[in-house]
Amino acid sequence: xxxxxxxxxxxxxxxxxxxxxxxDKDWEFYVKNTDFTVYRRPAHDRNPNLFEYRSFxxxxxxxxxxxxxxxxxxEFRKKWDKNMQSHQYFEVTKATDGTSHNGNHFEMKYPWPLxxxxxxxxxxxxxxxxxxxxxxxxxxxxxxxxxxxxxxxxGVIRIDTYMQNICITPTEDGQGCTVFMDYFDDPKxxxxxxxxxxxxxxGVPAFxxxxxxxxxxxxxxxxxxxxxxxxxxIEL
Length: 236
Known about the structure:
The chain has 236 residues and is α+β, with helices and mostly antiparallel strands.
C-alpha cells in the first residue's frame, strides 16, 4: 500500500519545473560546487529555527537509472557511506485499516562527543510522465515515520522530523542526468546553530560528491546495468 499519494509526486515535479524556469523565489543561494548549486530557506513548517536545503544540478556521466539504484539500495550504501552504522527494513501496518507499507531504519555515526542519530522512515519511487511532451521524471520521496514504528535504541537519538525528496531526469543522450533534491532533518540535542549550519554547508556538497562516486562504483560492479523494479506511471 503506497504511503504517498500520487499528488505528492506530481507536486514535486512541478516544483522542479518552477525551479528550472527560475520562477521559484523562496530559496536563497547557499553554496556551489562544480556540478550543483545548493539553496536554503527557513523550515517554517518543521522547525523555523533550522533550514531546509535544495540542490539542483547534474552529471554528464551518471545515468538516471544508476542514480536511482544507488539512492534506494541501502545494502550498497554500506560500501560507500562511512557514516552508515546499520540499516534494517521493516513493515508498518496501520491500525485503522490494516494496510501496510515499507519502512527503513538507518543509524548514522555522529562525531564524538555527539550521540549517533537514527531514522525510521519510508521511501517510495514512482515515474511521472508529462503528457504535453512525453518526458518522464523519476521521483523518490522520503519522510520520517512516527517513532513508535520502530523501537528506539539506548544512547541513540531518533531524528523524527526528516524529509528527502529527489527528482531525476536523463540527459538527451541518456548518459547523464539532471538532479533536483530537497532535504531537511532536525538533529535535535544541544548542538549550536552555528555548528548545524557549518555541517550543512560542508555536508550537503560532500554527500553529493560521494553519491557521484558511488554511482561510478555501482556501474563498475554492474557493467550491464540492473533493471529497476517496475512502478506505476503517473501522468502530469
